[in-house]
Amino acid sequence: MKKDLSEKVKKYKKALLCSIVVVFVGCGVYYGYKYFYTKPIGQMPMQQVSAIKVVATEVYPETSFVAKIESKDKVGLRARVEGFLQQQLFQEGDLVKKDQPLFIIEPVNFEASVREATANVAKAEAQVKNTKAQFDRTTKLFKTKDVSEAKLDESEAAYSSAEASLAQAKAQLDLAQKDLEYTTIVSPMDGKIGESKYSVGELIGPSSGVLAVVVRINPIEAVFSVSENQLLNMQKNFQKSDKVLVEFIKSDGEKYNHTGSINFVDVALDEAMNTLKIKASFPNADGELIAGQYGRIVLKSLTPHPEIVIPQRAVQQDMTGTYVYVLTPDDKVERRDVVRGDELPNFEIVIDKGLNVGDVVVTEGFQKIAPQMTVKPVFEAEQANQQVQ
To answer: How far apart, in whole angstroms, are the C-alpha atoms of residue 54 and residue 56?
Structure first.
């Protein structure tokens, strides 16, 4: 009897325990469902994104182009007379001055030609003097009827012929003096002289070709070409009233320590390349810039222009084009196509089209947002102030 009662009690306890477990499991399932599946979506926290408000920024337009240094003038020295090269009066690579003697051609024969031509002039002058005196006497005699008119004509012809011979002799003297002058070859300008093609003692003349080359180094020019699109951008960025700073950056990134000025703009685009040639002149007294050297021309406007400027990280790119994410007044994400402008220092970029002053642009958090999604903007200016505080 006692054994049966004990078994009934055990069965009762077991059933009670199972009931309690079922009640607790049921409550857990109910409240879990209520919490996870019936909680309103609107109560979930909104995604935060970093953003900025677009303002007009004063920008000094700047653009750069690949450029090549070229000498403004380049002259090949040639012999105008033939003779043996007697002297070379320079070291290759020297800086030379205008009219500085550079080569001497042996002048002996040319000096002799000058002396001969001088003697011929003296002889012709004496002949002129003699024929003039005869003509004067014949004229007087003709007036007194002592000589015929034919004799007078003959005397006048002799005098005219003597004058012509004198003029010819003087011309020959001029040529001889000029040839003698040409035996000294001088620099046509201030500049730098290159390698000499001939050695002292060699026979040179007009057919010998270039003896050496002199290039003007001060001023010197940086030549660059601008495409049609670049030209249109320059016309937009650099207005006629702007003052433009012209700089040259060497191939190693070092800035040349003198500024230049635009001194030539071609009159038309090159039809083959569709580019416009432009030249900038730079002072180069010490010869630091060398013809053939490459670098970059940088044009900077000294007049500020108001532009839309945003961080480069805010600009996105895909197969369809360039865009940014902006926020509507109710903080919904919206994709906006934009046109990029010039890149600025500090990783900023000018936006030519697509944004207006007052627009709110997302700068970080793109992975967690999509168009039409409502987000919570955290403005970068506010974040900066909080960090300072």
So the answer is: 7
SS3 217: coil
List of residues 6+ apart from 270 with CB closer than 8 A? 225, 276, 277
3-class DSSP state for residue 320?
coil
Give a three-class secondary structure readout of 147-194. Answer: CCHHHHHHHHHHHHHHHHHHHHHHHHHHHHHHHHHHCEEECCCCEEEC
Residue type, 385: N
Q: How far apart are the first and last CA of the chain?
A: 83
Name the 3-class secondary structure at 245. Answer: strand
**Hey, is 275 helix, strand or coil?**
strand
**Nearest Cα to Cα of residue 64 among 293, 288, 299, 319:** 299
Q: Residue 330 phi/psi, 5° resolution?
A: -95, 20
Asked if 162 and 121 touch (Cβ cutoff 8 Å), the reply is no
DSSP run (H or E) holding 353: strand 348-353
Helix (H, G, I), strand (E, B) or coil at 43: helix
Tell how strand 360-364 and strand 47-53 pair up. Answer: antiparallel
Sheet holding 203-204, edge to edge: 184-186, 101-105, 83-88, 203-204
Q: What pLDDT, on the 0 to 100 scale, is given for residue 381? A: 63
pLDDT surpassing 60 at residue 36: no
362 forms beta bridges with 51
Distance separating alpha carbons of residues 336 and 322, to the nearest angstrom: 9
Domains in the chain with CATH codes: 48-58+306-388 (2.40.420.20), 62-72+217-305 (2.40.30.170), 74-214 (2.40.50.100)
pLDDT of residue 4: 55
CB atoms inside a 10 Å sphere around CB 310: 21
pLDDT tens by residue, 175-188: 999 999 999 999 99
288-328 tens-digit pLDDT: 999 899 999 999 888 888 899 999 999 999 999 999 999 99
Cβ atoms of residues 162 and 124 within 8 Å? yes
**Per-residue pLDDT tens digits for 100-124:** 999 999 999 999 999 999 999 999 9
Q: What is the pLDDT of residue 385?
A: 47
The pLDDT of residue 221 is 95
